[in-house]
Amino acid sequence: MASYKLATYAGADGPRAGLVIGDEVCDAAQLTGHAADATVLGILADWTAARDRFARAAASPAAGQPLATTRLMAPILWPSAMYCAGANYADHAAEMARASGRAPEPDPHTLGLKPWHFLKAGRSTLAAPDDTVQITGISKTMDWEIELAAVIGLAAKHVPLTEALGYVAGYTIANDLSARDMGRRPHVPDTAPFKFDWVAHKNFDGSCPLGPWIVPSHDIPDPQQLGLKLWVNDVLKQDSNTSQMIFTLAEQITHLSSRITLQPGDVILTGTPAGVGAARPEFLKPGDVVKLWIEDIGTLTNRMA
User: Fold this and answer.
1) What is residue 1's predicted lDDT score, i.e. its pLDDT?
2) For the segment 135-167, what is each residue's pLDDT rounded down to a tens digit?
3) Which positions ≥6 away from 63 have C-beta within 8 Å?
4) What is the DSSP letter of 196?
5) CA–CA separation, 203 vs 189, rounded Å?
6) Using CB atoms within 10 A of its CB, is residue 35 exposed (0-12), middle (13-18) or buried (19+)?
7) Which distant-in-sequence residues (6+ apart) come within 8 Å of 119 by Cβ?
8) d(CA 194, CA 119)
9) How do 208-216 and 227-232 pair as beta strands?
10) Which H or E run includes 292?
């Protein structure tokens, strides 16, 4: 099957879906002659047929525009939901336990627990590749978190574990930026059940850089065998592999779909490994450049301001 990546780029009249083929970006709708292919959400709504159209088009593509001079946007405009796995790498769970003076917790599987997710807003939180993210005035302890992000391509409800990955259209890179000092409400007792504020902690403008594109799932047969790294100002901070997840992506899809129907274009952030700033402690400051890399996907870079 011909190789391509699915992206959203800034066209002359606004955002357009594009296929990245080699070092060029081809307009998806112009390439296939299918009007609904003008947006990534339109493509995902017809994913089974669209991936066949793209495979044929990528085999003998028309000339596109240079990738080097094309402005890529967040690949999905806009996901209806972004589900984010919490505490889903054993090494990260252990480092956060140490940072808060708690004993390490056992593998959740042994306790009969299921994956645990929170939400990021599906529109205002997104930042594009190479965007500058405003952190000044939002948090004094802004943290980085590299995550493999799975993009749903088929409506999913009560999905069996063995079939779960078949509902994934493709994969991209996310940075789950976290305002650590905003996660606990002031003037509320630490023992109160209403102490935590996940909206302020995880949701602010630009808190989810996403991109640079979506690699179709047929090019990543095993999402649990991908290296991932994050640098701040070219200093390596996170270096791990998706094999270290506690709950696999398939387990997450099965669990989420038992509660709610996952829709085409929904995004699942699958968790972050050890190496976050809160464990050091060390946090982002204006001028910092954060670069994320995931094997077989690419690189996502943003500057903090």
Assistant:
1) 58
2) 999 999 999 999 999 999 999 999 999 999 999
3) 24, 26
4) B
5) 23
6) exposed
7) 81, 82, 83, 84, 198, 202, 203
8) 17
9) unpaired
10) strand 289-294
β-bridge partners, 25: 20, 65
Q: Which candidate, 137, 126, 151, places its Cα nearest to that of 297?
A: 151
Query: What is the domain partition of the chain in residue ranges?
Result: 5-69, 82-304
Helix (H) or strand (E) holding 21: strand 14-21
Question: Rg of the chain's alpha carbons, rounded to an integer?
Answer: 19
Tokens for 21, please give them. 């083929």
> Which CATH code for domain 82-304?
3.90.850.10
Q: Cβ contacts of residue 109 below 8 Å, gap of 6+?
A: 246
**Angle at 92 (CA atoms; ends 211, 204), nearest 5 degrees:** 45
Tens digits of residue pLDDT in 210-244:
999 999 999 999 999 999 999 999 999 999 999 99
DSSP designation for 156: B
Beta-bridge mates of residue 27: 18
Distance, CA of 169 to CA of 230 (rounded, Å): 24
Amino acid at 251: E
SS3 state of residue 73 = coil
Tokens at residue 37, please?
Answer: 């292919």
| Cα–Cα distance measured from residue 178 to residue 200, given in angstroms and rounded to the nearest whole number | 9
Give the mean model confidence (pLDDT) for residues 101-121.
Answer: 91
Give every CB contact of residue 293 below 8 A, 6+ residues apart in sequence.
Answer: 173, 227, 228, 229, 230, 299, 300
**Residue 65 CB: number of other CB atoms within 10 A?**
14
Residue partners of 65: CB distance under 8 A and separation at least 6 = 24, 25
| pTM > 0.85 | yes
